[in-house]
User: Fold this.
Amino acid sequence: MNDLEGLIIVLGSPNDDKGNLSKMALARAKTAIFTYQNHTNYKLLLTGGYGPGFNRTSKPHAFYLKKYLLNQGIANDSIVEFAESAYTADDAFKALPIVKKYNPKKLCIISSDFHMGRVSYIFDKLFKEYELSYISAPYLDSCDESEAKRLIEHEQRSLASLRDDKWLYAEN
Assistant:
């Protein structure tokens, strides 16, 4: 379709049962706004569908993220279709056909600071033909010590599990 300069991929995160974005989601959204303001020739690709641990509403998480971005002044035509994903690897797999459709030169992936090791591992494998950059949304500093420890340990386990699993080495 169009050959875009770049896409900013904002990974999904929790919202409550009324669709209000969590602290984590707001940090990612604010990071996306800042990034977009510095790259207005890019488009935004929002991820996040449904799941008991992050969104139990009737609308995908990306819908609430888009609503927030629009309320903050981001133009509707700056946002492409959603990747309605349920977990981190699903973000990448469901974003892939959308990325191929728009054929951007560059991809900028936004997620939380604690999450970036796993995100970069997955996206580096699936998006080899694109120029990738990663931007961390600050979150760990807003957590208490036990929550920060829990998140970091979860990420370490998840990344170790990915490294042991060969499915990610399949060709796109």
About this structure: The chain is about 40% helix and 15% strand. Strands lie at 6-10, 42-46, 106-112, 131-137. The chain has a mean pLDDT of 93. Residues 78 and 144 are 35 Å apart (CA to CA).
